[in-house]
Amino acid sequence: QEQVVESGGGLVEAGGSLRLSCVASPRSLSLHDMAWFRQAPGKEREFVARINMISWSTNYADFVKGRFNIDKDSAENTVFLDMKTLRPGDTAIYCCSTRPHIGGEYWGQGAQVAVTS
User: Fold this and answer.
1) What pLDDT shows up at residue 68?
2) In this structure, how many other beta carbons lie within 10 angstroms of the beta carbon of residue 95?
3) 10 Å Cβ neighbour count for 40?
């Protein structure tokens, strides 16, 4: 049974940094891509970044370009999100999405990120 688990959230001051991790299991599952989305209180979920687990190609939402970086360890079915120059507007629950080659999409429970001004 596939499981997706995020970690690394927390409380940080504006201008600070955090690193999120997401692990998809079982490790034998072949993944097409992994992505990060976020949902702030009272707002709809929005796309943050995605990485192809084979080609390394990435894409980002405009509001994180130059501040966030998505990286991966394909052997461990793990994706990272390095977040720098954080703003109060980045406060949200960050959720990881995985899409296996066999189809479907799986989500984690999310990691809370809170940025204080």
Assistant:
1) 98
2) 21
3) 14
Which residue do the tokens 């490790």 mark?
27
| Cα 48 to Cα 53: distance, rounded to the nearest angstrom | 16
pLDDT value at position 74? Answer: 87
In the chain, count H helices and then E strands.
Answer: 0, 11
Give me the chain's average pLDDT, please.
Answer: 95
DSSP-derived secondary structure letter, 19: E
Sequence-distant (6+) residues with CB within 8 A of 30 are: 100, 101, 102
What's the CA gap between 117 and 111, in Å, rounded?
20
Q: Which of 98, 49, 94 is nearest to 74 (CA)?
A: 98
CA distance 110 to 4: 9
Region 48-54 average pLDDT: 96
80 contacts: CB under 8 Å, gap ≥ 6: 19, 20, 21, 22, 70, 71, 72, 73
Q: Which tokens belong to 20? A: 């999120």
The torsion angles phi and psi of 90, rounded to 5 degrees, stand at: -85, -5
